[in-house]
Design brief:
It is built from 17 helices and 15 strands. The protein is α/β, with parallel strands linked by helices. Strands 4-10-9-8-7-5-6 form a seven-stranded mixed β-sheet, with helices on both faces. The protein has a four-stranded mixed β-sheet with strand order 1-2-3-13. The structure holds pyridoxal-5'-phosphate.
Length: 463
């Protein structure tokens, strides 16, 4: 049965949205001055709004719809599971078939010897679990002083108190008294933005060695873990220099600390392999997964940990932590079906071997545009840095973010969804994107850049 809202005109939906719906990460005044776009349907890599306008979704929703929209298998699995067992908890010595099967599957596909999954409803929750897991781990090993988690400036690990604290977004920390205690942040491996005048490989080593300096400053007996995304996603698709991860791994091996790799975006094929850890040769003790785990069709996240961590937590009484929806049977069944499709249709091999090199080649052509200081990509995530002066990488006149915002609107007008991060533009399309669709994406991005250049000049924002 359709709900009433299926029949309401767009304007009414927008009015009701303005009256009753609070949007995440949104300036409400600015939103309500413009009204929200009402997205109604989607198929493959395209979404459609209630006015019938279609857009190529360069962001796969929010970095998550890896298998693309419109797969009928997932709703069928969800309906079957809902009829059979819509919900049961995994507390009190109970389990369910989808949770068992998904935890076994995650042990198979995640990197190295990771073997046990602790389920959550989202990436933020899974990272909050990680914070509790690593502190509890050291406590049961008789080292309760090891509570500090080292993270990086500009990292994104979620929006709950714990995960936003581990994240390094200054604008998030500026509200509500974050970060919580015992979280510290080192620099990010952002060579384009912060490595001016330095050699890229050398810069990667310098930024990695900040971890060693920070461990020594705090004392090894105080540090529980280091957490990082293989490629910083929401921070602007910051791809580390090749030297960075091997040096981070060396430091994690040399000191007694755990390595949490946040694979919420990079996992499930985004970087051209199953996990970002595979692409960069990282050996994590814990990975965080969400987003591509279910291709966004249902909310689910998980912390996947080594047997050593799982055993430590299990052999020491009760771990006082869990969620009503940990191991939710419908969410687990849908995630499992998503992974089955990724495996059986070789979608990750396609994205890595066909789509990745093609996107890299086509995306690089945007680097020739007068407004673009750098075009970079890793697998199917990519960024362009906008600048009024390619040679000096100068910033635009006026506030940062303005030109990025203009470009985002120009993308929408040209039927492309690209996200802006300050004055850079990022994409993360579904992994099933075809070569023709990549051509269309790059063509529309080019049109939007032309219009943005004109507009920035007209507004006097070019230096
Ligand atoms: C999106 C994201 C999260 C948070 O996931 P939610 O499901 O939004 O809570 C955590 N880490 C990374 C790297 C993310 O991109």
């Amino acid at each position: 049965m359709d709900s009433d809202s299926d029949f309401l005109p767009t304007e009414t939906l927008q009015d009701l949205d303005a009256a009753h719906h609070m949007h995440p990460f949104t300036d409400g005044g600015a939103l309500n001055a413009e009204r929200a776009r009402v997205v109604a349907a989607a198929d493959g890599v395209m979404i459609t709004d209630t006015e019938g306008k279609t857009y190529l979704d360069g962001m796969a929703g929010l970095w998550c719809v890896n298998i693309g929209y419109g797969r009928h298998e997932l709703p069928e699995v969800a309906a079957r599971q809902m009829r059979q067992l819509p919900y049961y908890n995994t507390f009190f010595h109970t389990t369910n078939r989808p949770a068992v099967a998904l935890s076994q599957k995650l042990a198979e596909v995640t990197p190295g010897n990771l073997s046990h999954s602790f389920f959550a409803g989202s990436g933020s929750e899974a990272n909050d679990s990680n914070l509790r897991i690593v502190r509890r781990y050291w406590e049961v090993l008789g080292k309760p002083g090891k509570t500090i988690v080292i993270s990086r400036k500009n990292a994104y690990h979620g929006s709950t108190m714990g995960s936003a604290s581990m994240g390094g977004m200054a604008y998030m920390h500026s509200q509500g008294g974050l970060p919580i205690p015992d979280i510290t942040h080192i620099g990010q491996p952002y060579w384009y933005g912060e490595g001016e005048g330095t050699d890229e490989a050398e810069f990667g080593l310098v930024r990695a060695r900040e971890l060693e300096t920070e461990i020594r400053r705090l004392g090894e007996d105080r540090v529980a873990a280091f957490i990082a995304e293989p490629v910083l996603g929401a921070g602007g698709v910051i791809i580390p220099p090749d030297t960075y991860w091997p040096e981070i791994q060396r430091i994690c091996d040399a000191y007694e600390i755990l390595l949490i790799v946040d694979e919420v975006i990079c996992g499930f094929g985004r970087t051209g392999n199953w996990f970002g850890s595979d692409t960069f040769g990282i050996r994590p003790d814990i990975v965080t997964v969400a987003k591509g785990l279910s291709s966004g069709y249902v909310p689910i996240g998980a912390s996947v940990v080594s047997g050593e961590i799982a055993n430590a937590l299990y052999d020491s009484g009760e771990f006082n932590h869990g969620y009503t929806y940990s191991g939710h049977p419908v969410a687990c069944a849908v995630a499992l079906e998503n992974i089955r499709i990724l495996q059986e249709e070789n979608i990750i091999a396609y994205s890595g071997e066909v789509a990745t090199p093609y996107l890299a080649e086509r995306w690089a052509t945007l680097g020739d545009h007068p407004l673009v200081g750098e075009a970079r990509s890793c697998g199917l995530m990519a960024a362009i840095e906008l600048t009024p002066d390619k040679a000096t990488r100068a910033a635009f006149k006026g506030e940062a973010e303005r030109v990025g915002g203009i470009c985002r609107e120009n993308c929408f007008r040209n039927g492309l969804i690209m996200r802006s991060v300050l004055d850079s533009m990022v994409i993360s399309p579904p992994l099933i994107i075809t070569k023709d669709e990549i051509d269309l994406l790059v063509e529309r991005a080019g049109l939007a850049l032309d219009e943005t250049l004109e507009e920035a000049a007209r507004l006097g924002l070019m230096s």
